Amino acid sequence: MTEQPARKDRPRGDPATEPLGARDASRPPLQIDFAKRRRLLESLGGNRASYCYQCGACVGDCPSARFYPEFNPREIMLTALLGDLDSLLAEDGIIWKCSNCYNCYERCPQDVRPVEVIVALKNLASRDGAAPESVRGTYEMIRRTGRSAPVLDSLNKRRERMGLPPLNAIDLEELDRLLEPAPKEEPSAGDAPTRNQE
User: Which whole number is the average pLDDT over 180-189?
Assistant: First the structure.
């Protein structure tokens, strides 16, 4: 068993030696960009994400964190809640490595739903034109054909051999209605904000 060095032997700045709330004076103070944070919370439709207390349960069973050492849902949540969205919303941002498996949704003791925050960040990035080329290509394919991959003749021949009908064209008019953004509702003058809207 390895012994921990005595407290006086540990380097300054070691979390185990610093009193709770102490911070290194050489680091600049944390800044919260409330406008960007508000943009994220509005896209989520509430304030649920603010209840994240950084326990790290979301990381424990995350397949993306296993395959990408730089991917950490807890850090994404903290960065988002500080309003530091620029790095997250970049075309090469870490959010695009999320597999949307919903394990973090299931594990979160606060019901913060980290995957929904990441999906909201992906949607904001897409609206800003910062989605990776592969995502934009898939989106365009869905808009044109209703499918995420082209239906090749070889696929329909294989389906025929298996006794399955060929894949028919998808009603794109209905798909267009689904993909159009919903009109933003303005609250009436008499509506008081709820706890989640504050």
Answer: 62
